[in-house]
Design goal:
- This protein has helices at about 30-40, 50-60, 65-80, 140-160, 165-170, 200-215, 225, 235-245, 290-300, 315-330, 335-350, 355-370, 375-390, 395-410, 415-425, 430-445, 445-460, 470-475, 480-490, 495-510, 515-525, 530-560, 565-575, 580-590, 615-625, and strands at about 5-10, 10-15, 20, 25, 45-50, 90-95, 100, 105-110, 180-185, 190, 220, 245-255, 260-270, 275-285.
- The chain is α+β, with helices and mostly antiparallel strands and about 625 residues long.
- Among the domains are: about 5-110, Winged helix-like DNA-binding domain superfamily/Winged helix DNA-binding domain (Arc Repressor Mutant, subunit A); about 145-170; about 180-310, 3-Layer(aba) Sandwich (Rossmann fold), CATH 3.40.50.
- The strands form three sheets. Strands 9, 10, 11, 12, 13 and 14 form a six-stranded mixed β-sheet that branches.
- Helix 1 (about 30-40) crosses helix 3 (about 65-80), helix 13 (about 375-390) runs antiparallel to helix 14 (about 395-410) and helix 14 runs antiparallel to helix 15 (about 415-425).
- The N and C termini lie far apart (about 90 Å).
Length: about 625
Amino acid sequence: MHVPVFEFGDFRLDSSRFELLREGRSLKLERKPMELLILLASSNGRLFTRAEIAEKLWSSEVFVDTEHGINTAIRKIRQVLRDDSEEPRFIQTVMGKGYRFIAPVTIIDASPNADSPAVPTETAASESVPAVPAPPSPRSHAKLWLAVAALILLAATLALTLGPHPLAARLLHPNPAPPITSLAVLPLDNLSGDPSQEYFADGMTDEFITMLAKDSTLRITSRTSVMQYKGAHRPLPEIARALNVDGILEGSISRTPDKVHLTLQLIRADTDTHLWAESYDRDAGDVVSLPQEAALTIAKRLNSAATPTAAPRYVNPEAHDAYLHGHYLWYADQNEKSFEYFKKATELQPDYAPGWAGLSEYYGAGMVDGLLDPATSRTPEEGAAIKAVQLDDSLPEAHLALCAAYLVVHWDWTRSDPECQRAIQLDPEFAEAHHFRAKIFAALNRHPEAIEEQKKAAEIDPFGRPWALAYSYQLARQYDAALTEAHQRLETARNDRGLHWILYETYRCKGMGKEATEELEKMQSLDGDATSVAGIKQAYRQGGYKAVVHWQLISYEKWSKSHYVSPIELALLHAELGDRERTIALLEAGYKEHSPYMLWIQCDPAYDFLHADPRYRFLIQRIGLPPQY
């Protein structure tokens, strides 16, 4: 019988030997992934649906969830082939359908010989079924059992004659694997066949992270740390090492108008072995409690269940879905769109605390980023935060929202910081709360404490806000430390706009106009604004950094005709030009509208030339800040 050998790219797949080679070197691939690879490679480009794959490779076996098996097999095949799901060379995913082998394949007939036995299989002429290796002979089984029995007898003899002996103990009670104490929840794959459902997959991922952190004693990796692996088919042990965790939870979710299907599998990272797998089917309107249900099951499986919390509150499924959508857009920096969904969540269920916390975050961040006018945003920010805390005093996000409201709306850090500490008490791994506390300390000229808080945030969430620690150094006027930190972060986040922004700010504060201009150009380039890049370059050629400042002023004036522009943005530019009267007038305007930027003006050396001006000193006194002059 002739058994085919498939050659594609640098690979040779010998179905008789059940072996995959790359340039003559044998590659490790487990049985099921190997069978699936043979099936796909032999299909002449045919699309195999997931149902067909399950029927051909799993129909005769008892398996917890074939969808998990298929996902894992595809992932392992892609790892060994070094294939990318986004730009595949070998295996193409047809969303919502199945998989197709797309690489050109050369088929070579290989006759079996003594050292490579082929196992005949009865197949229909139109089907290609992977060959499987011959089972070990009964004689091999007998030898194996004799060896095992001998070891057991030896161990028993040692135990009886020598008492507690290390060798006997190791033979009879081999060391168990150390317990899993830390876990990363990888982004759930969206198998709905509809890209618009990405928000739902990401939202459910977030909720698994939250519930596992709440209902277990495990250390759970933060959202921003795991989201970098969305769609990245890298070996799980490698991901686990990068995230410093013992275990990985991965899975997929699909939703139709009527049903939701979720599959999860728990994997021990160091050995890449499956510990648990489960699938869940729910009506589309009955998924709110699913993350907590699965999280409790996983926590119990790992003997890490926390003390039971209060009974979950009722949540309107439509309000929950709106909140997930708003949260997804919030993380995608689409703040205006997120507002629509947060608002919808509170309208659908007026007593839904997360929706109110999301609304408050929208208003607060909009003011801090200079996108929303404090005159119209302060009252709704505070009102939404108070409402969230009243509805759910155990929600960390609600207390952080109230912390931000007290600081931004009232410039009242005496009430703001306790709310921040309460959020941390409710969730010690809440990096966002530590980040906000760093901002409070910076405003109060308590920079060593601010830097320590930001370091805590970075330890909890190493991939969230890569620019934030450099920003704390910059506000403390530790410019060399800020530059070092930012450049180190750039090594792994080249296109992070925030890092180029902090480099621009730091070079500006150091008086390094050329370098500041270059970073400003990079920011505009990342925004895709080629016109601004050209304008900045021309301004610098004509008049150096001061001409670039003038260019920024003109740009803000144009923008202000159709959008809100904070007077503090303009005050800073006039301060850089040394225009005392215009700077003071704009700072007064910022004070009157209660601009959040006023809290950190003393951290910026551009205003140092005003320190002796009584109008500036009186302004700092009215804000209530401890003077830094």
